[in-house]
Design brief:
This protein is mainly alpha-helical and 388 residues long. It is 55% helix and 10% strand. Keywords: DNA-directed RNA polymerase, Nucleus, Transcription.
Length: 388
């Protein structure tokens, strides 16, 4: 990572979790992989503080760990996940997206899970119902069933997913902080878990409770102490949920494609693409080039895959993203080097290979100016010179 990225990660950790977690996280970023004792020795922090910091990072998916170079018999080694730290920059966007799709209830569900890293469904439902009830007029309250419904929709559309099961790897350091997950366990990839999006049956009925301002601190402590007991009573003990960042990013990609179609074609075409993307959002793999086949009207970003049922069509994701990237590059070139350089750049993108004389003729630019512009683009690594 660059020095700027390391500094940014450190500032994010400090803002969200404090100085100690920032020091542990930043040292792990710079060192790569370290054992618990090595990390405590090099940071000159108390072992207990390092354990607590690692538990916080693991709870939020920002630290992974497993057997070291000595194998299972050796000490566990820790590695920071910088990508998940940088996700904190997008927390407001994740929360706003949940609000726009699923209202205030969806917003608070995602906000609570982002703040705590991972939560059980029953605990999330109770917390969100209490918050919504607290903001309602006197005499009104939020029913648990409404929050359960919003939570279920977030899972069905894959914005939330189960945390993968943890396999014990020796002694646990989770006792260092009040956290429900074991600190010494190596999680698998969430998508590889067969029940990743399976909702548990929870025995939860009732309504949110209004908190008095004088009892806020006491309620928080009481809720933390009774978390495990409440989960066992509700039937979802040990089943924790986390935000699926990749699903949010795919949603952002889809919105960019829809906006591009609207600008290039019209509003009706963008609504067709929006419908196709929403209908296939769960069934289309994350890195697929095309969406799942659907019946629709053909346009530039839609390709035909068969004739059954009057024609089957898919959204060409790679072509749409390539066009978005191309438009971005063209705007950068125009802003930095002017409209004539942008014209030459667009010409080379379209024709792939051209001689200098062809560039002059097709772009209708004088020979000297074309030569200077091509040299500038070449020096900036925006075009390449191919010698035959």
């Amino acid at each position: 990572m660059t020095a700027q990225e390391v500094r940014l990660c450190g500032l994010l950790l400090q803002e969200h979790f404090g100085d100690v977690v920032e020091k542990v996280g930043t040292h792990l970023i710079r060192s790569g992989v370290l054992t618990l004792r090595a990390l405590a020795y090099e940071t000159k922090l108390a072992l207990d503080l390092v354990k607590k910091s690692l538990c916080v990072l693991v709870q939020h998916g920002m630290c992974t760990f497993g057997a070291g170079r000595r194998g299972p018999a050796g000490p566990v080694e820790y590695r920071i996940n910088c990508e998940h730290i940088l996700h904190m920059l997008r927390y407001p966007r994740y929360i706003y997206t949940a609000k726009s799709l699923y209202g205030d209830t969806g917003e608070l569900i995602v906000e609570e899970i982002l703040q705590r890293g991972q939560m059980t469904m029953s605990s999330t439902v109770k917390t969100v119902a209490d918050r919504l009830t607290h903001n309602m007029p006197e005499g009104q309250s939020m029913d648990y069933s409404e929050v359960v419904s919003a939570f279920s929709r977030l899972v069905e559309t894959h914005f939330l997913q189960r945390c993968p099961p943890m396999a014990s790897a020796g002694s646990s350091s989770s006792e260092a902080v009040d956290t429900p997950i074991p600190a010494l366990s190596q999680p698998a990839e969430p998508e590889s878990h067969p029940e990743c999006y399976k909702l548990p049956y929870i025995n939860l009925t009732g309504q949110g409770k209004r908190r008095r301002s004088s009892e806020d601190g006491e309620d928080d402590q009481r809720a933390a102490k009774k978390a495990k007991t409440d989960n066992s009573e509700c039937g979802d003990e040990g089943i924790y949920w986390q935000v699926n960042f990749q699903r949010f990013h795919l949603h952002f990609r889809d919105q960019a494609i829809i906006s591009a179609v609207s600008c290039k074609l019209d509003q009706t075409s963008s609504e067709i693409v929006r419908t196709m993307l929403r209908m296939s959002e769960v069934t289309t793999p994350a890195h697929a080039a095309f969406t799942q086949a659907l019946s629709a009207n053909e346009m530039e970003f839609v390709g035909k895959t068969g004739d059954s049922g009057g024609g089957m069509y898919v959204v060409n994701l790679h072509r749409a993203l390539a066009n978005l990237a191309r438009a971005t590059l063209e705007s950068v070139v125009q802003e930095r080097f002017g409209s004539r350089s942008a014209r030459i750049f667009r010409l080379l993108l379209r024709k792939r290979h051209l001689e200098q004389k062809q560039v002059e003729d097709f772009a209708m630019v004088p020979a000297k100016e074309a030569k200077d512009m091509l040299y500038t683009l070449l020096s900036e690594n925006l075009v390449q010179l191919q010698v035959q």
